[in-house]
Amino acid sequence: NNGSKISVVPELDNLKIAMDTISRFDFLLDLFHNSTCNMKILEFMGFSNVTKLPNENEKPGENSEPFDRKKLEDFNLLDRKLYEYALRITYVDCDFFLRL
Question: How far apart are CA 85 and CA 17, in angstroms?
Answer without folding.
Answer: 12
